[in-house]
Structure formats: C-alpha cells, structure tokens
Amino acid sequence: MKTSTFFKMALGVIFALPLWAQDAEIRFVPEPYPLGVVQQGEVKHIILKGANTTAKDIVLESVMSQNAGASGYKYPAVIKANSTVTIEFDLNTAYLEGSFSHVVVLIDTAGKPYTTMVEGEVLTPLFFSEKMFDAGYYKAGETREWTFYVWSSDKKTRPALELASEAKQAFTASYKQVMLKIDKLDDIKEGGKVPALKVTLKTKGIPRQGLAEKQKSLRHIVAFKSPEHPKATPEVLIVGYWK
User: Which of 10-14, 108-112, 198-202 has the lowest mean pLDDT?
Assistant: First the structure.
C-alpha cells in the first residue's frame, strides 16, 4: 500500500470517529498500537500513524516515553492542521516481561502533552518461582539468604544460569539440579517432570549504592545471565529498610 493511500485511509478513519473520540486532538490508528507477542530482548521498530484532528498546527517540542526501552525517536517539528503524522522509535524489550503498556508522550511548545500507547506481551525464556525478596530491616554487612526455583519456558530443558559480573561483588549463588511439579505456581514442589534449578542466593553485604543516609527504603536489583539466552535479563529484586 502506498504511503499516500494509507494517509488518506487513516484520515478517513480518524475523522469518522465520534466527537468524544476526537477530544484528544491527535488521534492514532490503531489505538493502542498492537505489538503482539515478542521474545524478551528483541528490538522492534515502531511506526505510529495518526492525524491532527484540529484546525490549527501543533508544534512539537519533544516526544518521549513514560517507560523503559524506547530510543531513537523520529517525529516532525510541526503537525499541520487536519494532517497526518508519523512517529517512529525503537523499542528494546530486554527489560520488559509479560503483558505491558508502553505510553508515548508528544509535548508541544506550550507544554501540552498528547499521549498514545503501545501494547504487547514479552515472553521470557526463563521463569522464576519468585522475583522479589524481603531483606527486612537490614544493617549494612548483615548476612541474608534466599532460595527459589528457575526453569525454562519450554519446560523441557534445564536452564543455564549464573550471576552477572556486577552482582558477584556482593552476592554468591549456588545451584542444585532438581525436577519440579509446577501445576500450581503458588505451590511448586520438587519431584515432578520439569527440569529446573534450585538457586540459593546469599549476601554478606547489600551495597547502598551511594544513597543518602536519610533514605530508609532498600531496593536492590540482582542480575543474572544465561549463556543460552544472551538477550534476556533475568533479575530479582531485594526490598526492605535500612536500619
């Protein structure tokens, strides 16, 4: 389909919308943009197409995202009255997981925002029985230990997993090969048919990462890596409060 033909069709669809649907002034079709199902780590080039439904030009100052992973935005400086607009950017899904809604914000020179959305689902190659752990009230240098299970999305191959280099400074991890029964994710048991790893994560000192002494909340990401899935970003989050 030629671009000019698409623009005519897009304008026809957008201006045929009921008045309540045109209040946004800039309408995109489709809304939200359906990315579909992708594998974690894929980079998708997104092209959003819409139109200025008003009788005035809209001068853009910037286009940004409220979520992680977007880069390389391309957009026009001016969206002419009653004219179409194309916004392009790359979306890196490395840090996305499961169903997501990615909000894109257009901001004009008067500071007025216009929003649209990209929706999709990111499939992760590795599943964690738990991804958030409570350190409680934590004093620097105290020992903590957590145990959880990891298995592959195909449920047939045992995953390869190790701590990322930055995590090794404060953490150690040991791995035991097990077989799991995962019929009920809230009641995972050993002795099933799914090959997995039982991971024991230990620390003798969670780093404060330069945080101000007055900050009491503890939020620390521990990153792993999998040689089999170099684009994936398996991580767990440790939360708590500093003593």
Answer: 10-14
Spatial neighbors of 15 by CB under 8 A, at least 6 apart, are 22, 51, 53
Q: CA dist 9 to 82, 87, 207, Å?
A: 13, 17, 56
**Do 114 and 58 sit in the same domain of this protein?**
yes
Same domain, 131 and 50: no
177: domain CATH number is 2.60.40
- Long-range contacts made by residues 188-196, C-beta under 8 angstroms, separation at least 24? 188/129, 188/149, 194/151, 194/155, 195/151, 195/152, 195/156, 195/157, 195/158, 196/149, 196/150, 196/151, 196/158, 196/159
Assess whether pLDDT exceeds 80 at residue 7.
no
